[in-house]
Amino acid sequence: MSGTPSRPDTRATPTPAQRDAQADDDLRDACREGKLAEVKRILDTGWTNINCRGEVGMTPVIWAALGGHRDVVEHLVSRGDDVSLVDDMGNNILHWACMGGDRKTVEFVLSLDGMDINSRGERRWTPVVWAAWRGHRDVVKLLVSQDADVSLVDDDGNKILHWACLGGDRKTVEFVLSLDGVDINVRNNNGQTAADVARGRPHHQLSDLLVSRGTQ
Length: 216
Known about the structure:
Layout: H1 21-33, H2 36-45, H3 60-66, H4 70-78, H5 93-100, H6 103-110, H7 127-133, H8 137-145, H9 160-167, H10 170-177, H11 194-199, H12 204-212
Helix pairs in contact: 1-2, 1-3, 3-4, 3-5, 4-6, 5-6, 5-7, 7-8, 7-9, 9-10
């Protein structure tokens, strides 16, 4: 990275007067790896945009949330990060935090002003769908306890039970089945039930579970 200015601005400004593309890359890398001290150092140089975008439009705070680096997420927010930004696919920081599966990180993100627990991202997937797909049962429970809407349907007609079965984590599927209003026989746009989805993957034990619970 090129030399730092003689009087670095320790405030992280969204659009610094002087920019270094390498500094932006370094910031995203440090956030992805959870290196808080390095994140602070890079931001203190004043050469980077705290909201800089990289691969598929992901910002540094999104990378930190995906990695479950809550301390880094908290620091970026304290320095003025714009947590309302979405990536090129329409996913926000909450979607990625749920994908990563660190409960403490998800809790912090949920506490931020303006965060919509039922926000729609890529293919209209909600945060709780991401968590269910990845088998993060604790995160699914957290979201449900804070009124995540498990009745929502994505662009392909899939509900949370379809995605939990696609992910293959039995405990997550069992929890989803225990929720009020979850229809074990609901079909997606291809006419598939959750049991059909499970049968199409190496999750035959899940289809057996669903059959034992009365799926058609």
